[in-house]
């Protein structure tokens, strides 16, 4: 525990201890002096407790609120400034790649380009969460097939030879685009991670549902029951922390996407997302 956290903890404990003692003494005093209508002393006692509690908690948490405001401003300012060096890196990288002929140096530049893309992805991730916190509605219009194509192209980098087939209609959605991309990306990533024998996986649309189907290791009924628990992993030898499906569930609950999972051990898993609520019906 940091020294600042320790001081904050001690201050909070002392403050609440004083508040409890004061309220207790106040209650005892009222109980002694009120003979007939002792029940009514509860009302002023509660009001006094609330006022004292509010004042004390406001005082003890003021430093925490101040620190949070500072960190919030620092994060937003840093994120804004981060976009500038990223643009400079990409612009100069393109010029170096255009002029370079040496194969080894080009490979090094490609690694730098991949690292730059990863950094930009992290930038977009933080930017998304900040916008979601500031704005009450982060929904926008976009096309489902374009989103799925983008997700699949990115996941192909980690597919290790597994084919990803997709057939999605050019339908317009009105939704949290970044959030839905994370949902599909997590589901595809899981299908790739638990794949067996390099069997292909499919993403397709049936009316108002989007389906991600694989021929992986599958899940038993007991595993299905635990699948959305945060940090749960069916196979702890695989990479990751068991967070992906809990994020998928949280997004689907927030944006009213009904989700069903059909799975059978050693046969495969089928995730069905009802996207009817997201369709931009004019």
From TrEMBL:
It catalyses: ATP + protein L-histidine = ADP + protein N-phospho-L-histidine. Transmembrane segments: none annotated. It comes from the Bacteria. SMART domains: HATPase_c. InterPro entries: BphY/WalK/GraS-like (IPR050351), HATPase_C_sf (IPR036890), HATPase_dom (IPR003594), His_kinase_dom (IPR005467), HisK_dim/P_dom (IPR003661), HisK_dim/P_sf (IPR036097). It comes from Sulfurospirillum diekertiae. Its EC number is 2.7.13.3. GO terms for cellular component: plasma membrane. Keywords: Kinase, Phosphoprotein, Transferase, Two-component regulatory system. Gene3D superfamilies: Histidine kinase-like ATPase, C-terminal domain. This is histidine kinase. The keyword Transferase applies. The lineage of its organism: Bacteria, Pseudomonadati, Campylobacterota, Epsilonproteobacteria, Campylobacterales.
